[in-house]
Amino acid sequence: MQLQLPAGTVIHICENPRVVEAAADAACVHALVCTSGSAATVVLALLDALAATGCRFAYHGDFDWPGIALANRIIRRYGAQPWRMGAEDYEHLTARSQAEGIPQLPLDGQPVSASWDPALAPAMTALGVALHEEVTLDLLLDDLSGRT
């Protein structure tokens, strides 16, 4: 696969197809690739081809242990920057979702350390709430639309 994009183009990567749907509905201007859960071979082939052109990546996924594990893999493989994936982001989003009355999902499973933020896993363990990407949708769309 050969792609031609200017070197340094930032490609945003998300985990949930709902982010892509909302970005399309909002006519967002930044490039976005969705892993649709754990990145399949076809997604990795696309990201490999984009990386070969000199693209840079920003990754966002779910704040649950499988989501952190996937983020670790994408960040390590592509040198991606975490995109609204820090401990402060998690704490803010947890508080905001509680204030908005969004049902809280329990954080189950074994903790996974985030390679990019050593404070994230302890914050997640302390609060015990799993957050899916939809909780962050408005902020992600702001970034993808160029409003921030």
TrEMBL record:
<dbReference type="Pfam" id="PF09664">
    <property type="entry name" value="DUF2399"/>
</dbReference>
<feature type="domain" description="DUF2399">
    <location>
        <begin position="6"/>
        <end position="144"/>
    </location>
</feature>
<dbReference type="InterPro" id="IPR024465">
    <property type="entry name" value="DUF2399"/>
</dbReference>
<protein>
    <recommendedName>
        <fullName>DUF2399 domain-containing protein</fullName>
    </recommendedName>
</protein>
